[in-house]
Amino acid sequence: MATQGDGERGGGVINYIIRRVLYALPILIGVNLITFALFFVVNTPEDMARMQLGMKRVTPEAIERWKAERGYDKPLVFDASKQGVHAVTETIFFEKSAAMFALNFGQADDGRDIASEIAKRAGPSLAIALPVFVVGLMTMVSVALLMVFFRATYVDAGGVVLCVALMSISALFYIIAGQWLVAKVWRLVPISGFADGGDALRFLLLPVLIGVVSGIGSGARWYRTLFLEEINREYVRTARAKGLSELQVLFRHVLRNGLIPILTASVAAIPLLFMGSLLTESFFGIPGLGSYTIDAINHQDFAVVRSMVFLGSALYIVGLVLTDISYTWADPRVRLE
Fold it and tell me: Does residue 224 surpass a pLDDT of 90?
């Protein structure tokens, strides 16, 4: 049966979510303004047209035609020739930047709808990011628990040295070495490409493996520090005094209490999984959001880059809000004031 306290706590959670969303709006507006300034003040629509059409032998008529076709022939933020709200709405800022708050990303410079491209490419990005996230988290926690169990031994010292070594290697090295050894020398998987359905598995095995291995060093070392802080607390000594074995103490108490920061960090990372990996998708030819962003940068498609920056900022803020909410639910000592 629900109590009055449960109702008050539920109302407090809702009010907290509303406040955090309202706090996030100025951040999104600020990111939008900065992005707009970078793209349309540093690079004017005329500069964008010249870069797309070619710097040499571009006529003024071609530039004006390119601007008109893509809606860049309007004033930047204010049209003095219009009356009322039209002076603000019929501008490049409102049509290209403010419209993104309604998830209207417009069209890329090549004419394709950006929202449709994002929806189509989110699947391949998740196909890589989600297994890397789940398998990587389980692997890092397991390695950290192993080092804590054998703390102050050669196993622990060797694990720390290995983690530092793995952290010191660039992610680009893992990708190139993995493609050369696993795909080219051993010929176990394709070196790049993507397919739909069940055939996608053979294209995803190597990127997922590289994503997990490249993150073990930093993740396992961080979780080891977290578990070592917990294992020296008073409740752990009490559990040992009651006759519990080291394995029971480690899994029943240390891991359970260490799951709170693990949970909050994991929840914060979930929205960012949709953004994909820039390096991995580009090198392996995965048609996800990461490669979409890289291609847009290479082709200087400012509409796509601007949309991806806004989407990434929005997802990051969503992750922070979810982190705070999950922390209050995971730790009963925390209350939403």
Answer: yes
